[in-house]
Design a protein that fits this description.
The protein is an alpha/beta fold. It has three domains: about 1-120 and about 145-255 and about 490-500, Aldehyde Dehydrogenase, Chain A, domain 1 (3-Layer(aba) Sandwich); about 260-470, 3-Layer(aba) Sandwich (Aldehyde Dehydrogenase, Chain A, domain 2), CATH 3.40.309.10; about 515-680, Roll (Thiol Ester Dehydrase, Chain A), CATH 3.10.129.10. Helix content is about 30%, strand content about 25%. The chain is built from 16 helices and 28 strands. The strands form seven sheets. Strands 15-16-17-14-13-18-19 form a seven-stranded mixed beta sheet, with helices on both faces. A hairpin with a 5-residue loop joins strand 27 (about 650-660) and strand 28. Bound molecules: NADP nicotinamide-adenine-dinucleotide phosphate (NAP). The site of NADP nicotinamide-adenine-dinucleotide phosphate has 24 residues, from helix 6.
Length: about 675
């Protein structure tokens, strides 16, 4: 029997003893054993904190993002090896694609997310906050990587995605991980970690793996660590209330089982495309991964007058699902991950049968292709019907983590909303409707109880990612029963692994710390126009104060003629009584153009390649003929860009803070403009 290895403190280590036997879900044969017996869990965490954390927290977001990209590309190149082992869990090719390539997709998505962060190890959070009238005292929120490790305790159903969707985020944040996959499918996670370690892409200590029990690890976590849990409500609750987690206020993110639902809008009739979309979506949710998805639809709500039509249509659709050996091309649904899981699902169906009946499928018989229905963990999709969802409530409480869903009637939309909420908080819910008014009413009223809501109709169906797919840029998690946690969500997810601190001081100090120019900070002037400096030479705070320009009435007339903007406020002859202005006023866009005329230095070729756009633009005071315009022009932020191909000009984006001042020194406008600036040296991704 092959004993799985644990990757800890920089080596592959076997635990003591025989360990827990793990089985091929299709044949029932024992294939591996897993044990962490004898491992020093305190030492594992300490190694992550001292070696892995120290290495990652020094890297900038951009370096960490490029590391994720390299890892994603490496794993893509190795993916066939991972598919080969994933079949042992009963997963079809399509199921494994979600797990393997979905997981790698998370690495890619988080790699790209680096562009939203500065090229620093830490970042700001939100807007700067002025705290004084004189402008000498302010604050900014700063996020720094926590000094601990991310401890991920994962469920068995997505052994690859479950690890990568979490690690992509903690690595981008600058924090290492200790991953403890669920034992029964940990052999797939082990195979991926072997590839990751062999690649040498991650710094030492960035990833450790435990195949088997978590031992006494939670006794040793601290407030600088983050524990994430994905699994059943019962285990989650037990771990969340671990005395050490409570005592030390260890951040704990819980993603638990949830009773997700789908609603058929009462505008939809069997002749509409939305009807077919509804049936197809449910079939997919019940059969993909044999229903072992945390997001799978467990409860189906349809208008009472079409209930029978719905279960007939669903029965026909489910009957087309070929079940059996996932290596056989004809097979659309494989087995559950273990016999134990199948027993648990069947046990829970029995509980639901106290208040419902089976309208499709059988608990006893199943036809399978190229496999043994008894030895393998196969089961038929089961559609239940519960005619009294307000009276028989166990359907809103018992999760059958397999190809099982219950159909229930409702009459008015209010009832569908109330029933959706009876799940007491779920990961996601869908409504299929062609009526946007109905969709709005449902979403606004059901939103409190769900982490994600999909509104499905003919307009989005072709490109819809579907009910059951968590996406790296969207939050994944849900309130109440679903655990009250949040993962991924683009930049939001990264923040779980960082400590937020409010920093107060002068604008000059806050500029130095954040590497982002703050209004009223001291500028740096060395006599060289910033447009003459290459990307590496520019410093945040580099500043010039331009010559003056007097704005005349003729300028305003000429700009009106050139642009075609003849708004009444820009005309001399307008009667200004009752308007916001005293007399003819300059166009805001003219003031910005005149500002460019003052701050641009570029009649000769130089490092500035082009004007890239404007982030923010505000006109704060009217500019009348005779006003004197001066510009304070400051380097606000620098964002490096990777050189993509040979021959591309190496460059970065520079943000400039443009203050348009009048003769009294008051601001008449402010803008953040962007330019592309050449580098002297190349940074290749
Ligand atoms: P589980 O039995 O609750 O186990 C989850 C994880 O907790 C496993 O890694 C398990 O390890 C570990 N664990 C159990 N006891 C522990 C202890 N005393 N100390 C530390 N770790 C411990 O769940 P599962 O059967 O693997 O997964 C199925 C459930 O997960 C379903 O209910 C499903 O709804 C839920 N799920 C939720 C999400 C989500 O995102 N919300 C995603 C996927 C699955 P061992 O395997 O070694 O026992």
């Amino acid at each position: 029997m092959n004993k799985l290895e644990n990757y800890i403190t920089g080596s592959w280590v076997s635990g003591d003893g025989d360990g827990q036997l793990l089985y091929n879900a299709v044949t029932g044969d024992p294939i591996f054993s897993a044990t962490t017996k004898g491992l020093d869990f305190a030492g594992i965490l300490d190694y992550g904190r001292t070696i892995g954390n120290a290495a990652l927290r020094k890297m900038t977001f951009h370096e960490r993002g490029r590391m994720l990209k390299a890892l994603a590309m490496h794993l893509m190149a190795q993916k066939e090896k991972i598919y080969a082992i994933s079949y042992l869990s009963g997963a079809t090719k399509a199921d494994s694609w979600i797990d393997i390539e979905g997981g790698i997709g998370n690495l890619f998505a988080n790699a790209s997310l680096r562009r939203k962060f500065p090229d620093l190890p830490y970042c700001t959070d939100g807007e700067p906050i002025g705290l004084s009238k004189g402008g000498t005292f302010m604050a900014h929120h700063l996020l720094v990587p926590k000094e601990g490790v991310a401890v991920h305790i994962n469920a068995y159903n997505f052994p690859v995605w479950g690890m990568l969707e979490k690690c992509a985020v903690n690595w981008l944040a600058g924090v290492p991980a200790v991953v403890k996959p669920a034992s029964i499918t940990s052999y797939i996670t082990e195979a991926v970690v072997k590839e990751i370690v062999a690649s040498g892409i991650l710094p030492e200590g960035a990833l450790q793996l435990l195949c088997g029990s978590a031992g006494d690890m939670l006794d040793h976590v601290t407030a600088q660590d983050v524990v994430t849990f994905t699994g059943s409500k019962t285990t989650g609750l037990m771990l969340k209330s671990h005395p050490n987690i409570l005592e030390q206020s260890v951040p704990f993110n819980m993603e638990a089982d949830s009773l997700n639902c789908i609603v058929l809008g009462n505008d939809v009739t069997p002749d509409m495309p939305e009807w077919d979309l509804f049936i197809k979506e449910i079939r997919k949710e019940m059969t993909v991964k044999a229903g072992q998805k945390c997001t799978a639809v467990r409860r189906i709500f349809a208008p009472a007058n079409v209930l029978e039509d719905v279960y007939i249509a669903l029965g026909k659709a489910l009957a087309q699902t070929a079940i059996g050996n996932p290596l056989n091309d004809k097979v659309r649904m494989g087995s559950l991950a273990s016999q134990g899981q199948r027993d648990e699902v069947k046990g829970n169906i029995q509980k639901l049968l106290a208040s419902s009946q089976i309208v499709y499928g059988s608990l006893d018989s199943i036809e399978v292709i190229d496999a043994d229905a008894v030895k393998g963990a196969f089961m038929s999709p089961i559609l239940l019907l519960n005619n009294d969802p307000f009276g028989n409530e166990n359907v809103h409480d018992i999760e059958c983590f397999g190809p099982v869903s219950t159909l229930m009637p409702y009459t008015k939309l209010d009832e569908a909303i109330a029933l959706a909420k009876k799940g007491k908080g779920s990961l996601c819910c869908s409504i299929v409707t062609a009526d946007d008014k109905l969709a709005t009413e449902f979403v606004v009223n059901a939103a409190t109880h769900h982490g994600r809501i999909l509104v499905l109709n003919r307009d989005c169906a072709k490109e819809s990612t579907g009910h059951g797919s968590p996406l790296p840029m969207l939050i994944h998690g849900g309130p109440g029963r679903a655990g009250g946690g949040e993962e991924m969500g683009g930049m939001r997810g990264v923040k779980h692994y960082m400590q937020r601190v409010a920093v107060q001081g002068s604008p000059t100090t806050i500029t130095a710390i954040t590497q982002s120019y703050q209004p009223n900070a001291k500028g740096k002037t060395d006599g060289v126009h910033p447009f003459r400096k290459y990307f590496e030479e520019l410093e945040v705070g580099d500043q010039i104060l331009t010559e003056k320009r007097i704005i005349t009435s003729d300028d305003i007339d000429a700009f009106a003629a050139l642009s075609g903007d003849h708004f009444y406020a820009h005309k001399k002859k307008t009667d200004f009584s009752g308007t916001m202005f005293e007399q003819q006023v300059a166009h805001g866009y003219f003031i910005l153009s005149a500002a460019a005329g003052l701050f641009v230095d570029g009649s000769e070729l130089g490092p500035v390649l082009l004007n890239y756009g404007i982030d923010e633009l505000r006109f704060t005071k009217p500019v009348y003929p005779g006003s004197e315009l001066t510009i304070r022009f400051t380097c606000k932020e620098k964002l490096p860009q990777d050189a993509k191909e040979e021959g591309h000009i190496p460059k970065g984006i520079v943000k400039w803070y443009v203050e348009m001042l009048d003769e009294t020194g008051e601001l008449s406008g402010v803008a953040t403009i962007l330019t592309m600036v050449k580098r002297r040296n190349v940074a290749r991704s």
